[in-house]
Structure formats: C-alpha cells, structure tokens
C-alpha cells in the first residue's frame, strides 16, 4: 500500500483515472465469458449448439450477431481501457522516478556534511540506482493488479450467479491458497531484504575497486584477496539470496497456478458427484474457473514485484530519515564588508560511536585576514582537516562563534558567507564544466589561465565544458585551480594542493600564485606539509590533538638552519 500512496500523492487525479480505466477493463473482461455462454445452448444429449440466428458480414457467417457485436465492443473496451490505464500509470511512474531522484538530489544538497559522511556515498548511489527503479517497477504493476483483481471479482460474482455452492467452495479454496502462499512469501521477503542490505556493501566494494585500482595493480596477491574476500563474496551472497528468494516466489506462483487447476478438477470430477448441477451450469462454471486462473496467476506474479518495491521504498525512506538537513536560510543576502574571519572559542565535536568518546577540536581562537597567507600544519589526526571545514563553513561550531568581520555566522547568514569561499580539498571533485555564468570576458580570462597553468595544450573550454578530464593528478588540480580563480572569491583554502605537483609548478604555486592572491586582497589558507615553503606564510598555525599549540608570524628577513623563514610569536 505504501507504493500506492507514493503514486497517489504524486498525481492523485491521474492515478484515479488509471484505476478507473483499469476497473472498467476488469469489468469488461468479466463480461466476456457470460456473453459467450449466452450464445450457446444445451440441446438434449447433443452437447453445445449455437443458436440459429445468423447474419452475413463481409461474406462471413456470424451467429447471434447482436451478442457478437456486444462481445466485440467489450473486447475493444477492454483493450482501450487497459492500454490507457497502463499508459497513464507508466507516465506517472516516469514522473515519479524523476521526482524521487530530484528529491534525493535536494536532500543531499541540503544535508549537513557530517550527515553525508556518516551515511556514506555508496548508500546514496545504491538507493538511486537500485531502490528507485524497483519502486517504479512495483508501481507499474498496479494497473495489471487492478485489472486482474476486478476481473477476478467479476467472475466470482458471475460464478455466484451460476451456482452458490460452487462459489463457496472456490472462494474457500482461494482463501486457503492465499493463506498458504504467505509462508514462502515471508521467507522470500526476508531473503530479498538481506540481498538489498548486501547491495550496499557491494556498492562500497565496487567503489574500492575503482578508487584503489593503483594499489591493487601493485600486488596481485592483494588484488586476488580483495576479489575473493570482498567483491566475489558479496556477489556470491547476493546471487545466493536472490536465487533462494526467486525459487520460493516462483514456486509459490506455480503453486497458485496449480491451485486453480486443482479447483477445476475437483469441481469437474468430484464436486458434481455431491452437488446437483446441470450440464449448462457445469460448462459455465468450468469456463469461469478456466478464465479466472489467469487473473490469479497474474496477481500472484505481481506480488514479488510489489514485495521488492516495498523493501526498496523502506530502504529509501530509512536513508532519507537519516539525513540531517541543514536548517539554514538559503536566500542569499549581502553581508557587511569584512577584512578578517574571526574564530572565538570555537569547538567542534564528532558524534561518538560504539560508546567511544567523540573527537573534539577546540576551543579555537584565531583570525584569518585578507591580504595574508595563513598556513595550517600538524600531524595526521591533529584536527587541521576539521579546522579547514570549519573555516569553509561545512562544519558548524558546537560552541563559540565565527564572524566575517562584524557579521556573525548563523542560520540566517551562513549561506551568504559561504558564497565568499572557494576551497580545493585533497579529496576534491572536478566537475566537467564551468558552473558559472560565462561571458566573453570570462571566456578570455579562462583561456589566459589555461596558458598560465600550462594546460592550454591539454584542455579546451567548449560551450562551458572542458574538452577532457583525462589528465594527470597534478593537471587536474591545476584545472580545479583555474575554476577557483574564475569564481573570484574572497577566501581561498587549499588542502595539500601542491602534493601532486612537479617541483617547478610547486614553486610557482607557493612563490607566485599564493602571493598574487594575497596582493589581490584575498584571504588565503593553506594546509601543507611543505616546510620548505613555510617562509611564504604570514601566519603559521600548528595543530596538535585538536588544539592550536603554536601560532607564529613571519619575520621579515631571518632564516632558520633548515632554510625555512623563521617564524615568531
């Protein structure tokens, strides 16, 4: 029913029309057998005989032409109504597939970064690529379910008209079959649920294969172990669960078909010996029973699709429920002029897992000034990455405040403050196009930057898109730098940007690009381990165990023994 609610909520009018058309088609189906029975009669022991009222149409003899005409109209109604019902719902399902994905896009875009990191990227991809299609397949089965259900009800009603005793027997047999059908269905549903959970792990493992291909290529033993103990294990377990589920479900469907024929055989060979029924009624009963075997089979066949859709919808809803949406004002407002970003006793706490205390960063008090270059350094796990995400406002403080000049960052201003920031993280994503407005001046500037970054012989900008992203790691980072320059922000953060650059361009980055940004009155923050270039920094912030243990300002001339410019408090 949750699938039906999803479709009804999306397009109530069209779903109602689809149901109505499906119901009319089902009624039409249920009229076909009675119309056929009206055209025949039983004459003594001679069996079936067609009534003698015959007319010629296009040289063809047609008996009981009035009934035949009604039969033809009923067939056309069934064809038209069923087709229209399915077309309407298929169109609705396409809209729902699009809207479900759009809903996911919006939820992801509006989610807090910690929430996304905790859920994991693979689960989002599995929901979009697996659950949404399954929900749509289940929804598309609704017209068939409606048509066959109405047909079944109509034919049972006609059976009641023919013989109430046979009707009671058939209904009891169907109810018994439905009851027995539930046992394999429950087991099959659990297997499908397990298979769906395993698919999350498979998505993550596939990501590991793609992202870790360089490491796996270096060690064939490690690569084979990854295949055997991770990828192949997930694949085998998923196939095993699916095979068991499909065996149960398909076997149950065949059992449903068998029930139909057992009922027919019981009526034809056994029930007639204990229940008075004339030959004409017996023929009608058998025709009805033969006719309803198909709707019963179709209904049973639709149950696995609906079960998978229900599982996927439950999975999708659970993922959506776990997304913590940022409750912020997305409307952009102009913030006051600022010269520095001020951290005042800022703290950030990670959510504890498995009763382990969460890592805490802070309290942190610091200033990031325009026209200055600030380096953040420290060992792995010192908290510098968390600090960088606080600076770029991806994380929000649990305690303390962040101000852009006199404008405090809060739910009303955070979106506007983020517009001032550009960042290239170590795990950055390079889009295949420029997501900014392009005019002639911007295009010319982009070509200039391509030359300056030694990329003009590798990449072209065509209709706002890059001609290729098949570049080395260093070249891709330079292309990301070009995008950052074109965005023309006030605060730039670079997380180990130069790690993939050759010595020549690394020197250009530290000695030319960073000072140029500072001269253009940009606030520049660099996370770096390149101690040879610490002399570039106007301010050096050293992190350890989530706290600032040292902050130093550059001396103008003196140098240390290691060649770095000396820094002092």
Plain-language structure description:
This protein has 569 residues and is an alpha/beta fold. It starts with a helix and ends with a strand. The protein folds into two domains: 2-322, ABC transporter transmembrane region fold (Up-down Bundle); 349-568, P-loop containing nucleotide triphosphate hydrolases (Rossmann fold). It is built from 15 helices and 17 strands.
Count the domains: 2
Name the beta content range: 15-25%
Outline the biggest β-sheet: 7 strands, mixed
Gap between N and C termini, in Å? 68 Å
Helical percent range? Answer: 55-70%
CATH class of the largest domain: Mainly Alpha
CATH topology of the largest domain: ABC transporter transmembrane region fold
List keywords for this structure.
single chain, 2 domains, 15 helices, seven-stranded mixed beta sheet, ABC transporter transmembrane region fold, 60% helix, alpha/beta, four-stranded antiparallel beta sheet
In short:
The chain has helices spanning 2-10, 12-38, 65-110, 113-119, 121-140, 142-162, 164-211, 213-218, 220-274, 279-322, 384-391, 414-418, 440-452, 473-487, 503-519; strands at residues 40-42, 48-50, 54-57, 60-63, 340-349, 360-369, 373-378, 399-404, 407-408, 421-424, 461-462, 465-466, 491-495, 523-527, 539-544, 547-559, 565-568.
């Amino acid at each position: 029913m949750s699938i039906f609610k999803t479709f009804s909520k999306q397009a109530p009018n069209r779903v109602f029309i689809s149901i109505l058309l499906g119901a009319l088609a089902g009624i039409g189906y249920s009229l076909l057998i009675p119309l056929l029975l009206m055209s025949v009669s039983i004459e003594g022991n001679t069996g079936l005989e067609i009534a003698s009222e015959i007319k010629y149409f296009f040289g063809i003899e047609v008996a009981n032409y009035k009934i035949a005409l009604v039969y033809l109209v009923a067939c056309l109604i069934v064809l038209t109504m069923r087709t229209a019902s399915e077309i309407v719902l298929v169109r609705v399902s396409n809209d729902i597939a699009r809207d479900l994905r759009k809903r996911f896009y919006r939820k992801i875009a509006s989610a807090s970064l910690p929430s996304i990191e905790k859920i994991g990227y693979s689960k989002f991809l599995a929901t979009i690529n697996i659950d949404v299609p399954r929900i749509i397949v289940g929804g598309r089965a609704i017209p068939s379910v409606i048509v066959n259900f109405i047909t079944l009800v109509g034919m049972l009603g006609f059976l009641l008209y023919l013989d109430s005793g046979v009707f009671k027997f058939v209904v009891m047999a169907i109810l018994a079959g439905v009851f027995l059908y539930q046992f394999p269905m429950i087991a099959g549903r659990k297997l499908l649920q397990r298979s769906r959970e395993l698919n999350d792990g498979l998505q993550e493992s596939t990501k590991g294969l793609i992202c870790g291909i360089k490491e796996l290529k270096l060690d064939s033993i490690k690569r084979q172990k990854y295949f055997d103990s991770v990828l192949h294990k997930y694949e085998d377990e998923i196939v095993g669960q699916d095979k068991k589920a499909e065996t149960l479900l398909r076997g149950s469907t065949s059992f449903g078909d068998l029930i139909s024929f057992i009922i027919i055989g019981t009526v034809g060979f056994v029930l007639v010996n204990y229940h008075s029924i004339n030959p004409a009624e017996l023929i009608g009963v058998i025709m009805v029973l033969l006719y309803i075997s198909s709707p019963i089979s179709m209904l049973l066949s639709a149950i696995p699709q609906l079960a998978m859709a229900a599982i996927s919808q439950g999975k999708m809803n659970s993922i959506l429920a776990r997304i913590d949406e940022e409750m912020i004002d997305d409307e952009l407002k102009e913030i006051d002029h600022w010269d520095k970003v001020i951290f005042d006793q800022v703290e950030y706490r990670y959510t504890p897992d498995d009763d382990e205390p969460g890592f805490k960063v802070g309290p942190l008090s610091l200033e990031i000034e325009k026209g200055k270059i600030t380096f953040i350094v420290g060992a792995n796990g010192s908290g510098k990455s968390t600090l960088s995400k606080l600076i770029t406002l991806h994380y929000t403080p649990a305690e303390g405040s962040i101000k852009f000049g006199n404008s405090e960052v809060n739910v009303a201003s955070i979106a506007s403050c983020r517009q001032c920031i550009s960042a290239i993280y170590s795990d950055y994503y390079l889009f295949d196009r420029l997501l900014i407005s392009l005019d002639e001046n911007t295009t010319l500037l982009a070509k200039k930057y391509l030359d300056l970054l030694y990329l003009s012989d590798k990449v072209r900008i065509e209709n706002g898109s890059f001609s290729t992203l098949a570049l080395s790691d260093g070249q891709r980072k330079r292309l990301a730098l070009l995008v950052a320059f074109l965005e023309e922000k006030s605060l730039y953060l670079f997380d180990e940007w130069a790690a993939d650059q050759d010595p020549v361009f690394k020197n250009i980055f530290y000695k030319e690009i960073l000072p140029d940004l500072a001269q253009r009155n940009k606030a520049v923050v660099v996370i770096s381990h390149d101690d040879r270039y610490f002399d570039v920094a106007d301010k050096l912030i050293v992190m350890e165990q989530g706290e600032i243990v040292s902050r130093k300002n550059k001396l103008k001339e003196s140098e240390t023994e290691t060649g770095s410019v000396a820094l002092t408090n």
